[in-house]
Amino acid sequence: MIISLLFVTSFSFGQNLDAMQFRGFVDTYHAAQISHSNNFLASRSRFRGEMAKLNGNSYFFASINAVYNSTLPELSQIQFREAFMEYSGNHWGFKAGRQIIIWGKADGLKITDVISPMDLTEFLAQDYDDIRMPVNGIVLNTFGNNWKLDLVWIPLFESYLLPGANNPWGIDYSEFGVTLDEANEPEFNLSNIEYGGKLSFYLSGIDIDISALHTWNKAPVYSYSYDSTSALHIKPEHHRMGFVGLGFSKALNAFIVRGEGAFNFDKSFTPNINDYDEGILKRNSINYLVGIDWYPGSEWTITTQFSDEYIMHYTNEIDLPEHSMISTFGISKKLFRSTLSLSTFGYIDIKEGEFFKRTSADYSVSDNIHIIGGVDLFYGDEGTFGQYEDNSQMWIKAKFNF
């Protein structure tokens, strides 16, 4: 596949591989529980190769991951991460192929940024760049001096990647006498495509975007049923939904104020298990976020965000609260001529009093080599973050860029 890719690229760009840019990295990551049995929760090494070529208004990019995962051997694989071609003219352009599509103003929270699904095989205990997954699609754009319109077409549905039963971040339903059925993912046909658009304005001191998308819930919701032996079955399901969104970011001296909101149409929600006969519940919801980034100088960065999803026409049969309020905070500081970066970033479930916090130190041994270490802390009962309290971990990572 790699040889074929190089051949096609060489032929398309004038049979000249000399101008092809090759870069990438090798990293290794290992994490162990802080408490209990101190088991390794992750132990993996990865090679990322990237190749790119610019020729006039045309651009080609592809990246390949080769991963060896000793903790979860089934996740060891070689795969294309991205592979796309891009053209940019005077007033229009397009980007086609496997790509990561990012919408919205939020940092680490998904309000309108719902096109690319998420890899949650280690929940949030990965770099966010690794959590966001690529999709196959086409983005057609037109633009002027201070505006841009993106039209998106995604023909193939891709869902969140969730941990399996043998994964320390997953649930073994068989231990509870429960059967997890196969998910009902949308078929690959014309009526199931995702489509939408985003109109962005870049004005003096403020950016504004308006978006709309006809999509699917990438994170599954669950229906319950009992078979003839009274055994419980759980079925992951994906349903159509849509949203219209609005976002902005405004610079105010050393601050950047950000906001984002979405009105979700016919979003699907999992019922309480005691109300399983209600089936999947459809409701409209309003999801919004406000955030502030502060750059006080001396290479300090301080960020905070507040988000809330309000379920309209709420009933107690829904297995979520009427308001899901999440706040984030982050602090980072660079030291020793920017060779050492200290940072902490956390999520807080305001209603449940639970949190997840990642604290790390990144030391640049040279321009190419980084040694990174940190601690991930989970706290709570059985909610979004508390369910992983036993997975609080220490980790170390080494990375070589080339």
In short:
This protein is mainly beta and 402 residues long. It contains two helices and 21 strands. It has a single domain (22-401), classed as Porin.
What does this structure look like?
The chain has about 400 residues and is mainly beta. The mean pLDDT is about 95. It has two helices and 21 strands. It has an 18-stranded antiparallel barrel. A three-stranded mixed sheet has the order 8-12-11, with no helix packed on it.
List the helices and strands and how they pair.
Elements (H helix, E strand, L loop, with lengths): L1 H11 L8 E13 L6 E16 L2 E12 L7 E12 L3 E8 L28 H4 L3 E9 L3 E8 L23 E3 L13 E10 L2 E11 L4 E6 L5 E6 L2 E13 L2 E15 L11 E17 L2 E12 L11 E13 L4 E10 L4 E11 L4 E11 L13 E9 L1
Parallel strand pairs: 8-12
Antiparallel strand pairs: 1-2, 1-21, 2-3, 3-4, 4-5, 5-6, 6-7, 7-9, 9-10, 10-13, 11-12, 13-14, 14-15, 15-16, 16-17, 17-18, 18-19, 19-20, 20-21
DSSP strand (E) fraction? over 45%
> What's the shape?
globular
Largest beta-sheet characterization: 18 strands, antiparallel, barrel
Can you identify the CATH class? Answer: Mainly Beta
Helix and strand string, N-terminal first? HEEEEEHEEEEEEEEEEEEEEEE
Tally the beta strands. 21
Helix percent band: under 10%
